[in-house]
Amino acid sequence: MEIWYHGHSCVQLTHEGHSLIIDPFISGNRLATTKPEDVKAEYVLLTHAHADHILDTVPIAKSNNATVIATFELATYMSWQGLNTFAMNIGGRTSIGFAEIEMIQAFHSSGIVLEEEKKIIYGGMPGGYVIKWDGLTILHSGDTALFSDMKLIGQRHKIDLAFLPIGDVFTMGPDDAALAAEWLCAKAVVPLHFNTFPPIVQDADRFTAGLRDKGIQSRALQPGEKLTL
């Protein structure tokens, strides 16, 4: 499986001719090396409704005739933008043919801010995903704080790779993310949600080195970088 990191929390998974992308925030990210029009994906998975996770959903979904998977409220909003959608909620599972997807909880907030109108549209509960694909189990936590039920998630799923935020301020920071990696019993971890904006600048290499000292494989990816799982 090829994993392509587009920066911030945006990850694309590709395997045997199929592809999905999670939290597409590319055009608004000064560190991104990819353009939204270059993305080819059948599904767009959204963890929550903040702009730095959904910004490029419409152009990517429309150009690929892709299906957007999100919580009921966010999926409904995306359907109003003329997109194909599939609504889920926390604890639900579904099959997309080549992979099985479960939506897991996250502790964060979720809303679409309309600056000109000074309104906020409720985006449903935030979440994350456990994706099981060709014998591999991949977790994308979405934006989240540390919470003790990560232990339960780790007990129920043998996680080959976990994507976890480390930026702090808006999500858990490096110390809590390191504990989350242990609680999830993840074999490997890739950090997300750091360095995009000044408040979330972190030393990702220090974070990954700390995990490796604990026997957890870890690697920080640069925007545009790929790895094979």
From TrEMBL:
Record flagged with keyword Hydrolase: yes
Catalysed reaction equations from the record: 3',5'-cyclic CMP + H2O = CMP + H(+); 3',5'-cyclic UMP + H2O = UMP + H(+)
The answer to keyword Transmembrane applying to this record is: no
Looking up SUPFAM superfamilies in the UniProt record yields: Metallo-hydrolase/oxidoreductase
Molecular function, one GO term: hydrolase activity
Query: One Pfam family from the UniProt entry?
Result: Lactamase_B_3
The residue ranges of the Metallo-beta-lactamase domain are: 7-193
Q: Which UniProt keywords apply?
A: Hydrolase
Q: Which NCBIfam families match?
A: PRK00685.1 (NF001911)
Q: What does this protein do?
A: Counteracts the endogenous Pycsar antiviral defense system. Phosphodiesterase that enables metal-dependent hydrolysis of host cyclic nucleotide Pycsar defense signals such as cCMP and cUMP.
Q: Which family does it belong to?
A: Belongs to the UPF0173 family.
Full protein name = UPF0173 metal-dependent hydrolase ET33_37190
